[in-house]
Amino acid sequence: MRAKIQATYVTTPKDIERKWLLVDAKGQTLGRLASRIAHVLRGKHKPTFTPNLDTGDFVVVINCAHIHVTRNRMDVKLYRRYSGYPGGLHTQTLRQIMNKYPERALKIAVKRMLPKGALGHQMLGKLKLYAGAEHPHAAQKPEPIQL
Fold it and tell me: Which residues partner with 21 through β-bridges?
């Protein structure tokens, strides 16, 4: 008797099918929304997920200016960046970032949840963020999803 051999499926770049998804961030919590977006950008919601390939979908997020944060995080959460020079440490609160660039807080949160390196940069390129309800991706016909 011959034993049956089980073939292992391996996803290749030509097998990847991408969809456009639309997310309304109005009233959603920052961290929870960011983790769900990172999950979709990575492609973990698909049965063809492969850790070394970008199998995720495009995500368009609208109403980033209306994101909800819990407790007093608007004034306590700090974002730091360093220029590399003495005295070059710049610190901003979440409130300051949301007032000037509303979509930047969500982008930073999602970026920190994606893999580091070239693969993470490629995944982050599929994230489109807009402060208001208007977006220029109507031609791609994004499907609205509830995260």
Answer: 59, 143
Is 23 inside a domain boundary?
Answer: yes
Cβ atoms of residues 26 and 111 within 8 Å? no
For residues 88-108, average pLDDT: 96
Give the residue-averaged pLDDT of 4-30. 92
Confirm whether 92 is domain-assigned: no
Average pLDDT score, the chain: 95
Is residue 96 situated within a structural domain? no
Which CATH number covers residue 34?
3.90.1180.10
pLDDT digits 0-9 by tens, 113-129 = 999 999 999 999 999 99
- What is the pTM (predicted TM-score) of this model? 0.91
Question: 17-21 contacts: CB < 8 A, separation 24 or more?
Answer: 18/56, 18/57, 18/58, 18/126, 19/57, 19/58, 19/143, 20/57, 20/58, 20/60, 20/137, 20/140, 20/141, 20/142, 20/143, 21/57, 21/58, 21/59, 21/60, 21/142, 21/143, 21/144, 21/145
- Is there a contact between 23 and 62 (Cβ–Cβ < 8 Å)? yes
